[in-house]
Amino acid sequence: MLPTWIPAAPFLATMAAAAPVTLFLGGDVMIGRGIDQVFEHSVDATLHEPYVRSARTYVALAEEANGPVPEPVAPAYPWHDALGILDARRPDVRIVNLETAVSAGGEPWPGKGIHYRVHPDNVACLTAARIDCCVLANNHVLDWGRTEVPTTLEALRGAGLATAGAGRDLAEAEAPAILPLPGSGRVLVFAVGHGSSGIPAEWSAGPGRAGLSLLPALDPDAAVRLGARIDAERRPGDLVVVSVHWGDNWGWAIPDEQTAFARTLIDSAGVDVVYGHSSHHPRAIEVHHDRPILYGCGDLLNDYEGIGGHREYRGELALMYFVELERRSGALRALTMMPVRIARLRLNRAGQDDAAWLARTLDRECKRFGGAVELQPDRTLRLRW
């Protein structure tokens, strides 16, 4: 009960303004191809890949690996156990890297071997998890052509989802997503991509040309230029997240240019979270001046079950990242990760052995940056720094 001499509304507003902010960050979310096919509405299953000609093949591979998938599935189906995790954690903001075009049309990008798209009706899968923001500066959003960028934006924004990193022109592609926080303040989400992740250079947005916000290089000068964009948008009390799609799909190495770029974003641009992705498995985390750098969040949702190769990276295991920040300073208070396992085209709570493997692996990789990862009794992973 509140003290009777304190007006309830101002008291609650003050409490909200002082409370820490928790962000949910998800790695690559690919709900096209095989996942799209098991919803009630789906795009034409025809693929233009070198070896697979139908998206239904990926459904069959998943079922062969882990058992039958009921069809049609409800929009919430792919999230499965992740929904309960999100409800328990109650993050203030939910952000994912959406790695697919949202379109039933278009033409596959010439010369590109993989083309992802999801039917616009299946944006309901994202709203089922109450996602707030989809970052789009990645190597699959233009898979079905430049003409499908407006279609993707309209489908997402029409469902109440903010976007960053893609636009009908350069100004829209570079604009941040602006997410209000309870009480006061905002989270600004800037999204950029780099060619090291496989983004074609011609996907860059321009004046009057739809496309992505691409970095010409991962160097301090590029970080400073991005910082100028951030300064033009930031208000007192804002927290800033920079999403970067960079690097190879597999491997533990963190290139020096990524480290230098991320640290410059923090030191010169005042960025609070560097949110990196593109790798198909989680990579190291660094805390630089009390700001987290997630070098690779790994895939969160995909249809890769049953595909051979790269077994040593355990690509079926994924992490849900919960980043807790001081509201006033932006400093990191806690970073916890919930292990999940992709099976039957949905996210399942990881078992003890899988969680322990992830903890050991990330602990090994974070040590080079002075961090440690500890497995908790509830199977969550906690970063120490």
Give a verbal description of the structure:
With about 375 residues, the chain is α/β, with parallel strands linked by helices. The protein has a single domain, classed as Metallo-dependent phosphatases (Purple Acid Phosphatase, chain A, domain 2), CATH 3.60.21.10. The chain has helices at about 10-20, 35, 55-65, 80-90, 125-130, 150-160, 170-175, 220-235, 255-270, 350-365, and strands at about 20-30, 95-100, 100, 115-120, 135, 160-165, 165, 175-180, 185-195, 210, 215, 240-245, 275, 285-290, 290-295, 300, 315-325, 330-345, 345-350, 370-375, 380-385. α8 (about 220-235) packs parallel to α9 (about 255-270). It is globular, with a radius of gyration of 20 Å.
Helix content: 25-40%
Query: What's the Cα radius of gyration?
Result: 20 Å
Number of strands: 21
Structural class: alpha/beta
- CATH topology: the name is Purple Acid Phosphatase, chain A, domain 2
**Architecture (CATH level 2) name:** 4-Layer Sandwich
Q: Into how many domains do the coordinates divide?
A: 1
Shape: globular
DSSP helical segment count: 10
Low-confidence stretches: 9-14
Distance between the termini: 37 Å
Major beta sheet summary: 10 strands, mixed
Name the CATH superfamily classification: Metallo-dependent phosphatases
What's the level 1 CATH class? Alpha Beta
Average of per-residue pLDDT values: 95
* Range of strand content: 25-35%
